[in-house]
Structures are given as C-alpha cells and as structure tokens.
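REQUEST ID: PR-0412
SUBMITTED BY: lab tech R.K.
PRIORITY: routine
TASK: structure prediction, single protein chain
INPUT:
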Amino acid sequence: MQRSKIAGIGYYVPKNIFTNEDLKKYMDTSDEWIQERTGIKERRYADRLGETTTTMGVEAAKIAIERAGITPQDIDFIVFATLSPDYYFPGCGVLVQRALKMKEIGALDVRNQCSGFVYALSVADQFIKTGMYRNILVIGSEKHSFGLDFTTRGRNISVIFGDGAGAVVLQPTQTSTGPGGQGILSTHLHSDGESAEILAMYNPGTHANHWTAQPVAKFDAAEMGQMFMSHAMIDEAQNFPNMDGPAVFKKAVIKLPEVVMESLTQNGLTTADIDMLIPHQANLRIAQFVQQKLHLSDDKVYNNIQKYGNTTAASVPIALCEAWEQGKIKEGDLVCLAAFGSGFTWASALIRW
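STATUS: complete
OUTPUT:
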C-alpha cells in the first residue's frame, strides 16, 4: 500500500524579536496580562520591506527540499497555506514556483487559516496516494504583522500573532498496512460556518454592503470601488481582524480533542499510543486544556507559542520541525497534528514517523 511520508522538513522565522515589553510602547498592556491569557512571551516580526509571506515560505522550503535529498526541479506540485498572501491575487504558490525556478508545475493555495497546513497536508496526501505526484512541497507561511492594529483598541488580537513559515516535502513510501507502517495514516477535516464572523477579517471583501459603515441597497458602479476599501473602513478600524476570544476558546477545547480521538479511533489506537502531539499554537491555555483532556504528559506535547506567538498556518510545521530537530520525534514515533481556527475549521493528521 502506497502512503505518503514527510521526507524533508524546514522552518524559517524572522530575526526581529518583539517581547511583551516592546508592545507596551504601542498599547496599554503588560507582560503579565499577555502571558496570563495566552502564554506568549515574545514573537517574531518580518522586515517591513523585503520579507513577505512568500519569501519566508521559500526559505523554509529550501531547507525541507535539501533535507529530502532532492532539488527544486524535482518538485511536482506545490500546496501553499496562508491567510496573509503577498497579493489579494495571485496566490503565493506561483510566487514560490517562480522564486525557486521550478518547472511549470501546478500550485494550489489553501485558505483555511489556522488549520490551513493540516488541510494542505491532507490534499497533498491524496495526490501522493493516487500516484499523481511523487514530490509535493507543502508550505504554511504568515506575515501577520503588516495587518494588525497596534493600538490599545486592537491589543486583544495583536498581542497574539507572529510571523514565520514552515514547509515539508511529501513523497510516496511503500509500507505495510495498519498503524505500524510509516507515513501519514489518516487525515480528518471538519468545518462549521455557523459562526464564521466570530473570527474573521471582513475587509477588504466583496460582501461590501453588509460590513461597511454606509451600506448600499443596490449596485452602483460609482460607489462599488469605495465599498471594497474606503476611508470609512480605515477610520473605523474595519480593515483589521475581528475575534471573539472566549467564543473561539470554548469551541476549540471541544473540537481539538474530538478530532485527535477521531484519528486514533480510525486507526485502532488510543492516546497512550501517541508519542508526540503537535497542536496548532493558538493559545497556550487551549493547548494545556487539550493536553489535560487527553491525559497526555508534558513530554508528549510540544508547544512553542511562548517564543513565536500564533503563526496560524505556519504554527504546526514550525513546531513539528523544532520538535524533530530537538530529537523529540524519532523514527517509528506516532505523531498527531491538530489545528482549529477561523471558519470554524479544524483538522488532524496522524503520522507514523
């Protein structure tokens, strides 16, 4: 049976470190306030000019490709997950293809925010299983810092997020059936759009007459351009992310344990079989709650949100790579990836390393 395996992995974080004390220069907050609510001590911000979501993804990809023992010319397909693309369009996948001077291969962008990397991994896994591609580059990358409200008004969101990128190369592996064989055992994807606006960035967007300060009842060519991005939106801070933190927390602590258990049950395994859980780094308190719910010891869960903040689609591959580099993940280990975020969407992947 052909499965897909992670043949190479890499990550990149910007050099610019911003501590909680640094954020006090811009908003009414404190180190104690931030750590108590999120567990975050510092985060990385990309250079304002020169570093983009794509360039960070490229740096992570170079490491993953080298560790896979191949070259950019060997990549057959790209799946790029992000909520902060370089451009409204085109997507970042084609920009990676250009930057790495790859062949004229397919490139797909995934917009599933915090669960984006696990969704992208699942998509790539299906392509490998069907035999369509043999070397797929999967990237999660985010440059949040350019779009955050660094004032007291926006502190509940802005203190959480950081920049960075992670990447893997997926390849086929011939393995035995069952949970003992190497590779991705299964992936599990879910969504519930009932409360989509609880965690969203409304503008710019084509909804125009629903979220703007001055709704229009019908199409007016003279006004539509202004409805896409207007001075009123900027003046009223409608171009920044919106989040009901407590509501997100309540949903995440239910769905994350559920989707982890779903992956284990499908493969005839239990939480006792997990060697390493890599949760999306949304909030240390969420990760700790999930750990407690699943009865996992500290050495079975890897968190690095303290250093990088929430890097959304990049958080799972960054944490996965760090854990592997530190020797916390070894060949034969059972690794579970789990993420929950805007949409709402949530997902898991169970991997025999």
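NOTES: The chain is about 35% helix and 25% strand.
REVIEWED BY: pending
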